[in-house]
Structures are given as structure tokens and as C-alpha cells.
Input
Amino acid sequence: MIALIQRVESAHVEVEGETVGAIGAGLLALVAVEPGDGEAQCVRMVERLRGYRVFSDAEGKMNLGLADTGGGLLLVSQFTLAADTRKGMRPSFTTAAPPEEGRRWFDRLVTLARAAQPGVETGRFGAHMKVHLINDGPVTFRLEVR
Output
């Protein structure tokens, strides 16, 4: 499982002009499910999303995680993160989970995140989405869980 996380001042997702998920300060996580991902990867990813230290403490150092700040978490499915781009001029998506498997484990990730963290919002799986964000920093990291 892969997540591209961005520390944001705010973020929201639109589908066909309707806002389907929005947060204030917190993390936007674009998430890709890979073949073979399951419960263990979902559990570990939630731990990392909540605990990864990307927020500043009183001394201005990145020592606080989302669990410490109580910020929002916007989870957006994005299978393209799992693309194989090592050769050629067109990505291959054989390294991404099939849609049914991706939906199953993305939905499980959302369920676990909502049980552990207040303020969890989502995009809409499989929809054409417009993601709006104000990146704070900018601060962006790629997290992987195997």
C-alpha cells in the first residue's frame, strides 16, 4: 500500500461539482492499493498516517503526528500511484490492485482510520475527482507499507 501524504492548511474533493469530502488543517493522503495488500497493510498504514511526524512542535521542528494535533485526514483513492513508470512513455498499471480488491482494502483503510482518528473524510472511489488543497510548507512524503 502506498500513500502520498501532504500536510495541508485545507483540502477538499469535488465530484461533478459537489464537494464530497473536506478538511481544515491536517493531512491529504492519496492512497494506492497494490496486489496482495490486506488487513495488515491497512492497520499499519493507519498507524503511519496518524503517527508520521510532519507537524511542527513549539520549537518549529517536525515532531508531531496527526494523532497529536487532532487535524483532519482526507483519504483519496489514487491507483495511479502504484503505476510502473520505469520504462517507456506510458505507465503500466499491472502493479496496482484490480478495482474490486482496491475498493475492498481502501474501504477497510477508511473504516480503521475513522475508528482511530476524528475528522476523517474521503473522496469517491473510482470517480473522476478534483482535489483542491493548500499544501502547508510544502510538505509531501511517500509512505509505503509492505
The radius of gyration is 15 Å. Helices lie at 39-51, 66-69, 99-116.
